[in-house]
Design a protein that fits this description.
- The protein is built from eleven helices and no strands.
- The chain has 222 residues and is mostly helical.
- It has one domain: MetI-like fold (Orthogonal Bundle).
């Protein structure tokens, strides 16, 4: 078992999830509460990584963050190193790739909140920030949990974006999915079984946490 890759995968997933929460909560509130035809275009852009092949997304990001573009050269001058083939680059790629998995549950949860509660809060003088933190987020707690767990799992298991944008650098960009690919490529199926079992166990445990909250809530109501 490559514990270095395991730790890096968890670190990548944790950093990605934290950043996504900071982006997805206000973005989802805007999509639900906002008005304007441009919001449909915004939602389409946010959802695009869900249907775009990960290798294609990884390639675009590799080119964008590389030294051949103005953005890539600017980032290199600012940080002293390119973002491509680095952990920071993987974080950026993972945030973009997993954004729909954080936004979609929150949009569904926020949209299910009774509009009477939202209108009452507005009448009492609640601003946008207080409206989101005091009404939408507490009422849509299960959606918030899903918006944490799903991107985390998605990042732990992602392969195409990691391979294209980060390559296979031990301790820097080699994640469990890359390790699994290498093990299968080398016909080391015993090691691949163990790596796959860990990824499967993480997924089952995290999804069980989401669905258990729904079961417990239903039991309390009964």
């Amino acid at each position: 078992m490559d514990w270095q890759a395991f730790a890096l995968s968890l670190r990548l997933a944790t950093a990605t999830t934290i950043i996504l929460l900071a982006i997805a909560v206000p973005l989802s509130a805007l999509l639900v509460l906002g008005r304007g035809r441009w919001l449909a275009a915004l939602e389409a852009v946010v959802t695009l990584p869900m249907v775009l092949p990960p290798t294609v997304l990884g390639f675009f990001l590799l080119v964008l963050l590389g030294p051949r573009t103005v953005i890539g050269r600017g980032i290199t001058a600012l940080l002293g190193h390119p973002l491509a083939f680095s952990f920071d680059g993987l974080v950026i790629g993972s945030v973009i790739y997993s954004l729909p998995f954080a936004v979609q549950p929150l949009v569904a949860g926020f949209a299910s909140v009774d509009t009477a509660l939202v209108d009452a809060a507005r009448l009492l003088g609640a601003g946008p920030v207080r409206l989101v933190l005091s009404i939408l987020v507490p009422v849509a707690r299960r959606s918030l949990l899903a918006a944490i767990v799903l991107p985390f799992l998605h990042t732990v298991g992602e392969f195409g974006v990691v391979l294209m944008l980060g390559g296979d650098i031990p301790g820097a960009t080699r994640t469990l999915s890359i390790v699994l690919y290498n093990q299968v490529e080398n016909f080391d199926y015993a090691a691949a079984d163990r790596t796959a079992a860990i990824l499967l166990a993480l997924s089952v445990f995290a999804l069980a946490a989401i669905y258990s909250t729904s079961v417990n809530r239903g039991a309390r109501r009964a």
